[in-house]
């Protein structure tokens, strides 16, 4: 059963043994002011449905928000818009561009660092997100400091979808990606900012995948309808 919350509502914290709980958009952690041993409080900052991912141990508030609001540790698909000093300005579909330091890559140094061009696509992690500061990005894992998939995405095509669908696609039990993977050979990178990077061998395959994503997002297609849409395309 879905749990609907309003701004200011306390949110129950599910147990996450062995790994800390990650709080996504719409939630705020409020430590105990008196320093007591009682559990800290998490409150909702916007109205919506409480979303959870038990495997990734994440908690967030789902809403019909159109613009992405950066949150720490979230992965995003960004587009380089300009150089800025020793780094880059990156469009992450938020209210402000984010800053990506040229040294925030695995093995990067002042003599050996990536040379990204305007229009390049990067898969990055939000390292800093605060309402009074511009977001900052890194292309390394927070724990290992290795790339672990982060960095420049070469080739491919970026499609836009709702923030709600992006979060659903991170759930391995959600039908869409397994259905597409059973039919097409593809590479897909998901950004929690409502962007999906797709790379296939042929443009027509990329277009077919983009059509399926749009059908689920805009028309609320289910698994059977997506399979029927794929069969109607008559692709090899």
Automatic annotation (TrEMBL):
GO terms for biological process: CUT catabolic process; exonucleolytic trimming to generate mature 3'-end of 5.8S rRNA from tricistronic rRNA transcript (SSU-rRNA, 5.8S rRNA, LSU-rRNA); nuclear polyadenylation-dependent rRNA catabolic process; poly(A)-dependent snoRNA 3'-end processing; TRAMP-dependent tRNA surveillance pathway; U4 snRNA 3'-end processing. Residues 156-203 form the K Homology domain. Gene3D superfamilies: 2.40.50.100, K Homology domain, type 1 (3.30.1370.10), Nucleic acid-binding proteins (2.40.50.140). GO terms for cellular component: cytoplasmic exosome (RNase complex); nuclear exosome (RNase complex); nucleolus. Keywords: Cytoplasm, Exosome, Nucleus, RNA-binding, rRNA processing. The keyword Nucleus applies. Its main location: cytoplasm. Residues 21-67 form the Exosome complex exonuclease Rrp40 N-terminal domain. It comes from the Eukaryota. It holds the Pfam family RRP40_S1. It is found in: Cytoplasm; Nucleus, Nucleolus. One of its GO terms (molecular function) is RNA binding. The keyword Electron transport does not apply. Belongs to the RRP40 family. This is Ribosomal RNA-processing protein 40. The lineage of its organism: Eukaryota, Fungi, Dikarya, Basidiomycota, Agaricomycotina.
């Amino acid at each position: 059963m879905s749990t609907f919350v309003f701004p200011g509502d306390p949110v129950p914290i599910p147990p996450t043994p062995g790994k800390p709980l990650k709080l996504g958009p719409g939630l705020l952690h409020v430590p105990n002011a008196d320093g007591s041993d009682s559990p800290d409080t998490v409150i909702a900052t916007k109205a919506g449905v409480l979303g959870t991912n038990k495997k990734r141990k994440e908690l967030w508030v789902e809403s019909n928000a159109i613009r992405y609001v950066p949150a720490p540790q979230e992965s995003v698909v960004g587009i380089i818009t300009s150089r800025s000093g020793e780094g880059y300005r990156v469009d992450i579909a938020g209210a402000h561009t984010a800053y990506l330091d040229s040294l925030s890559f695995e093995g990067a140094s002042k003599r050996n660092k990536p040379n990204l061009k305007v229009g390049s696509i990067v898969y990055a992690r939000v390292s800093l997100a605060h309402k009074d500061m511009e977001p900052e990005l890194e292309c390394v894992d927070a724990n290992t400091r290795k790339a672990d998939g982060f960095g420049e995405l070469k080739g491919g095509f970026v499609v836009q979808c709702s923030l709600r669908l992006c979060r659903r696609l991170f759930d391995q039990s959600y039908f869409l990606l397994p259905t597409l993977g059973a039919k097409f050979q593809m590479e897909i990178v998901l950004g929690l900012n409502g962007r999906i990077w797709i790379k296939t061998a042929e443009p027509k395959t990329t277009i077919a995948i983009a059509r399926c994503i749009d059908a689920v997002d805009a028309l609320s297609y289910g698994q059977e309808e997506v399979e029927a849409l794929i069969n109607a395309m008559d692709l090899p």
